[in-house]
Amino acid sequence: MHTNVNTLFDNLWQNYLAVTPSAVKVHELLGSTQKDDVINDHIALRTFNHEKIGLEKLAAHFLAVGYKECGEYHFEAKKLYAKHYEHTDPKQPKVFISELLVEKCSTELQNIVNEMVANIDESAVTGDNFLYSGTHWQVDADTYKALLAESEYAAWMSAWGYRANHFTVNINELAKFDNIEDVNQALKDAGFTLNTSGGEIKGSPAVLLEQSSTLADDFEVEFSDTKMSVPSCFYEFAIRYAKPDGELYTGFVAASADKIFESTNAR
């Protein structure tokens, strides 16, 4: 496992950029030319609640570089469970890890997932590069489509595997923008399509967090039998508000996160 938090995030970022070409344009659009003010609020990773590669196995990589567990979240309709982690240095990004509760899904989905997971070498899970190692299996296009019909989350995992599902611009740190409405407008003016599930802006100052996101880039995947463009990763935007004690809220809002997951839905 990594011993350096910055190296870990650099690798996650490069891996994300490789399938999310729009991320560079987001930086150019929102960033200031004077200083590097596009700061990452958090990343998210996906997995299955299989003992071999469950949420805790991913979290171990972050705990090893100074993170601690902070909150848990339930997404009944999507059959997901999640936790978020924060570093002892508040300047480091937060981490949101979710897992699909496979036993709550159809037998067909369970069989496909078990077959995929069987291809993962036990030693790979603790390797330095596991969090950005992509897929350890190959599925055909029909299997992807079968998963998609039941769980977009499972289909995404089958195509992309282990990588940051999104990075998040911390609007609080931007020099050119001080609210989420203006960020969203700039993105739309530049031709980006936003995730409108649950509204363009998820959350509110009342819950101390407002979020929006682009729809995932379409990117070509080489399935075992054919190549096909499917949604890859996306960019999120978050603005945090102060709690009564004056400190910025650092958690997540389940109702908002539920809709952010839909950023990887096919258009």
Write up what this structure looks like.
The chain is 30% helix and 24% strand. With 267 residues, it is an alpha+beta fold. Strands 2-3-4-1-5-10-7-6 form an 8-stranded mixed β-sheet, sandwiched between helices. Strands 8-9 form a two-stranded antiparallel ribbon. The radius of gyration is 18 Å and the shape is globular. It starts with a helix and ends in a 7-residue tail after the last helix. The model has no long low-confidence stretch (mean pLDDT 96).
Q: What's the mean pLDDT score?
A: 96
Give the amount of beta strand, in percent. 15-25%
Count helical runs.
Answer: 8
Strand neighbour order, sheet with most strands: 2-3-4-1-5-10-7-6
- Helicity range: 25-40%
- Identify low-pLDDT runs: none
Shape: globular
Q: Biggest sheet: strands, sense, closure? A: 8 strands, mixed
Instruction: Tell me the structural class.
Output: alpha+beta
**How would you spell out the order of helices and strands?**
HHEHEEEHHHEHEEEEEH
From the alpha carbons, calculate the radius of gyration and give it in angstroms: 18 Å
Tally of strands: 10
How far apart lie the N and C ends?
37 Å
